[in-house]
Amino acid sequence: MMRRVGGFFCFCTLRMEILPMTHPKTKGHIALVGAGPGARDLLTLRALERIRAADVLLYDRLVDPEIMELARPGAERIYVGKDVGACKWPQGRIDRLIVAKARLGLRVVRLKSGDPSIFGRACEEIAAARAAGIEVEIVPGITAASAAAASIGRPLTERGETDTFVITTGTCKPGDAAPDRARLAHPGTSMAFYMAVERAAQVQADLMGAGAPAACPVEIVTRASTPEERHVATTLGALSETIAAEGIANPAILFIRYPKSLARALAGTGAVIAA
To answer: Among this protein's residues, is 60 annotated catalytic?
Structure first.
């Protein structure tokens, strides 16, 4: 407002209770969302909400394209899959990208097949978000073992037969030793091996070397919950041979069971079993 003071004009400011002309940037958000094993109708409601609200979605190789169709039309979609033999998207690059997008005030969804907390490298992405001061959440999803077991009608545990259920992997970080599989070769144990097709011979040798019987039943399920799903039944003693003969490839879950009844039966015959 201009006011006359003596023979001069001066500009005076009014103190007004109004919002400033510039607004602080909206704080971004990162959600690590489990897309489930493949089938779109196995998404959780919370996962669906995050996908529909996202400004940016970064998705993996195994995420079903039908799930990506649930995103709003204006959302940015970025493929960050790690194909075998290719490393266009190393983990560090993904970490930097999700942080950069969130710093723009965007709602970022890092969409992972299965459950983000199970062999999904969630730790690295959570650490990157927290180091940048960005809010991050995990939205759990149905993991491949649950879907695979459901598809073949086999519970993951069975009263009186298997009272311990283990999720483990056949492929570790380069340079790391393989898991101590001798701990798993005990009666009453049900095991779900992820990323183990190429290491099946070693898994087989480790378990049998620790005392697991060759007769332990094995169920192999590939691409669980998708139209390409396949199921092959075998035994621990024939595991690597069956995988080679059937041409089984990842993604697959190897279910290996050591039922208590099998241990009792072998004990009755005097066969050597795991302690």
So the answer is: yes
